[in-house]
Write a structure and sequence with these properties.
This protein has one domain: Listeria-Bacteroides repeat domain (Immunoglobulin-like, Sandwich), CATH 2.60.40.4270. Helices cover 0% and strands 31% of the residues. It has no helices and six strands. Strands 1-2-4 form a three-stranded antiparallel β-sheet, with no helix packed on it.
Amino acid sequence: MLALAVCGNTTGATPEEFFKVSFASGEGEHEPEAQLIPKGGLISLPEEMTKSGQKFDSWYKDEDCTELWDFENDVVTEDKKEQSANYVN
């Protein structure tokens, strides 16, 4: 999903690219809302996930949970970047 937005005075303004970021909860008890992030922007850390009998580990870039997402440094550069939740016993 690519969205264009112009804020403030629209005369001569350049649209900014936004990307939709979704979260795969890994069968957690809730799924965080998708976020609309400007290109090169940071994702806001969603509330900690819960899953019965397991402890939330972290959010990962891939569904195999091998590449940790760094919310302070990793920026959004493409659409539909799904973050995957991981849990440990």
